[in-house]
């Protein structure tokens, strides 16, 4: 990887620890920490619609487009300006969450979602994706303890498809994707991430 600002996304299931690890990396590398959805004021409003458990009949295309709208605002207002100013960006979720959740999970066409999101991002995709791969039983146990939002309440099969989607994308592009097993302490997982990024000349 060439030196210069890097756009790194953290991906994985709910409760996998990616938010903690994204924060650790951003602090260590002085990168800008941000998130999708909800990384802007407009995004926060869109996020509250996406997560609202009182909405039972959201169309899956509407769901995908709301996530894409959040992303368009986030890229224009936060991500691209930071990179242009020479600052690296660490984002808790990215376009790859749409491919995993709305594509593999909700079973919308992944190629179409790539095209729509390529437009939404004006072609700005993460340079690197850190995928925190959590054992299935650990996810199930953690989710049982949380208040469930629209996505968390979507059921076991949906979440299995989402995780399989992340694993498929990671396996298809090992240069872009770093897979780290979420096994061990926060420090141990952070050390694995640091080692994997150092090999790639990042962080
Ligand atoms: P989190 O921000 O707490 O990780 O939760 C975000 C939820 O939104 C999670 O269930 C995944 C979902 N999501 C999508 O379905 N599509 C997307 O494009 C993004 C960014 C998130």
Would you kindly provide a written description of the structure presented here, covering whatever features stand out?
The protein is of the alpha/beta class. The chain has a single domain, classed as P-loop containing nucleotide triphosphate hydrolases (Rossmann fold). The chain is built from 8 helices and 5 strands, in the order E-H-E-H-H-E-H-H-E-H-H-E-H. A 5-stranded parallel beta sheet has the order 2-3-1-4-5, with helices on both faces. Helix 4 packs across helix 7. It is globular and about 45 Å long. The structure holds thymidine-5'-phosphate. Thymidine-5'-phosphate is lined by residues 14, 36-37, 67, 93, 97-98, 101-102, 151.
Describe how the helices and strands are arranged.
Blueprint: E1 7-12, H1 18-29, E2 32-35, H2 41-51, H3 60-84, E3 89-92, H4 95-105, H5 110-120, E4 128-133, H6 136-144, H7 156-172, E5 177-181, H8 186-199
Parallel strand pairs: 1-3, 1-4, 2-3, 4-5
Helix pairs in contact: 1-8, 2-3, 3-5, 4-5, 4-7
The protein binds thymidine-5'-phosphate.
The site of thymidine-5'-phosphate has 10 residues, from α4.
């Amino acid at each position: 990887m060439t030196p210069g600002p890097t756009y790194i996304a953290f991906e994985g299931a709910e409760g996998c620890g990616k938010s903690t690890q994204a924060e650790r990396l951003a602090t260590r590398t002085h990168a800008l920490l941000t998130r999708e959805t909800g990384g802007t004021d407009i995004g926060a409003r869109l996020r509250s619609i996406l997560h609202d458990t009182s909405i039972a009949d959201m169309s899956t295309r509407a769901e995908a487009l709301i996530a894409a709208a959040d992303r368009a605002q986030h890229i224009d207002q936060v991500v691209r300006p930071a990179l242009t100013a020479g600052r690296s960006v660490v984002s808790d979720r990215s376009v790859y969450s749409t491919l995993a959740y709305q594509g593999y999970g909700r079973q919308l066409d992944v190629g179409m979602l790539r095209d729509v999101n390529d437009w939404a991002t004006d072609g700005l995709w993460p340079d690197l994706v850190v995928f925190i791969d959590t054992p299935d039983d650990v996810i199930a146990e953690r989710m049982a303890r949380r208040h469930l939002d629209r996505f968390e309440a979507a059921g076991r099969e949906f979440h299995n498809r989402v995780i399989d989607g992340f694993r498929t994308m990671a396996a298809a592009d090992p240069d872009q994707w770093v897979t780290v097993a979420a096994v061990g302490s926060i420090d141990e997982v952070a050390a694995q991430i640091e080692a994997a990024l150092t090999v790639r000349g990042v962080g």
